[in-house]
Design brief:
With about 325 residues, the chain is of the alpha/beta class. The protein has two domains: about 5-120 and about 245-310, FAD/NAD(P)-binding domain (3-Layer(bba) Sandwich); about 120-240, FAD/NAD(P)-binding domain. It is about 25% helix and about 25% strand. It contains seven helices and 19 strands. The protein has helices at about 20-30, 65-75, 125-130, 140-145, 160-170, 190-195, 290-310, and strands at about 5-15, 35, 50, 60-65, 80-85, 85-90, 95-100, 105-115, 120, 135, 150-155, 175-180, 200-205, 205-210, 220-225, 230-235, 235-240, 245, 275-280. The strands form five sheets. Strands 1, 2, 5, 6, 7, 8 and 19 form a seven-stranded mixed beta sheet that branches. It is elongated, with a radius of gyration of 21 Å.
């Protein structure tokens, strides 16, 4: 049954990572009175990160969750209306655009900024979940620094996995790379670079059975699917690079997306194929996926939305 009560806002922001909060800060300062719904994971992927060392302005580093609390406080201080709730359905057929929160509350919005982010794909091992942030990571660029001079493992076979393995090979003594099949999906040039790196060892036809360690990663148990051999390798870090999934399912059919579900934006902007709907952060960025780039695109989305709202006929 559809709830008839609805609320009308100038600017609705969906998602609460660096992109969503940055958009909220800018739209609030522009007096657009934004309403932001935090989604299923308030603070986004950074809330499952421990130390963040590469965000400008934090010379001693900062804990991911703490940083997101500070983003939220700043957005609130500027006047953004931050709410708990998840967008579950949209109707973008006409303006004002309609978005349902938690399947019941209807929001009508003149402009929408989508900052729903992406989620790393995981192997699905209980030990992977237990040790996430304690040696298990889905971002070598974010966390590789902590494993300088140590041995690490990485699982994945695409270009991202190859890039991350190469990145780790410059910091770590040894990189063990596990590939499920007898070949890689990565481009030929990336495969060539992997083969040329003296400290990357490839394990073909290999699945990860378990990540070992009580409070932090100290090894990994793998199995060769061709011969059945099981072995344990001592490592301090375990990186999962089997891809990311943009959180864009509810927008399918309304917004243009690439084949993996990343929302397409007009180059050099955050505009989507629909007037007044903007996308920022990891939901539209399959290349960089960093907190600082997400925050930057959140700012862009806010400025794009402000400009669009000021020019549209009332």
């Amino acid at each position: 049954m559809e709830n008839t009560s609805s609320e009308h806002v100038h600017c609705l922001i969906i998602g609460s990572g660096p992109a969503g909060y940055s958009a909220a800060i800018y739209t609030a300062r522009a007096n657009l009175k934004p309403v932001l719904y935090q989604g299923i994971q308030p603070g986004g992927q950074l809330t499952i990160t421990t130390e963040v060392e590469n965000y400008p302005g934090y010379p001693d580093g900062v804990q991911g969750p703490e940083m997101m609390v500070e983003f939220e406080k700043q957005a609130t201080r500027m006047g953004a209306d931050i709410r708990y709730g998840m967008a579950t359905k949209v109707d973008f057929s006409k303006q004002p655009y309609r978005v349902w929160i938690d399947e019941e509350k209807l929001m009508e919005a003149d402009s929408v900024i989508i900052a729903t982010g992406a989620s790393a794909k995981w192997l699905g091992l209980p030990s992977e979940e237990k040790l996430n942030g304690y040696g298990v990571s889905a971002c070598a660029v974010c966390d590789g620094f902590f494993f300088r001079g140590k041995e690490v493992a990485i699982v994945g076979a695409g270009d991202t996995a190859a890039e991350e393995a190469l990145y780790l090979s410059k910091l770590c003594t040894h990189v063990h790379m596990f590939i499920r099949r007898d070949q890689m999906r990565a481009s030929q040039v990336m495969q060539q670079r992997i083969r040329e790196a003296s400290n990357i060892k490839i394990y073909w036809n290999t699945v990860v059975e378990e990540i070992l360690g009580d409070t932090k990663v100290d090894g990994v148990r793998i199995k060769n699917t061709a011969g059945g051999k099981v072995e344990t390798i001592p490592v301090n870090g375990f990186f999962v690079a089997i891809g990311h999934e943009p959180n864009s399912a509810i927008f399918k059919g309304w917004l243009d997306m690439d084949e993996t579900g990343y929302i397409k934006t007009v180059p050099g902007s955050t505009r989507t194929n629909l007037e007044g709907i903007f996308a920022a952060g990891d939901v539209q960025d399959r290349v960089y996926r960093q907190a600082v780039t997400a925050a930057g695109s959140g700012c862009m989305a806010a400025l794009d939305a402000e400009r669009w709202l000021s020019l549209r006929p009332h």
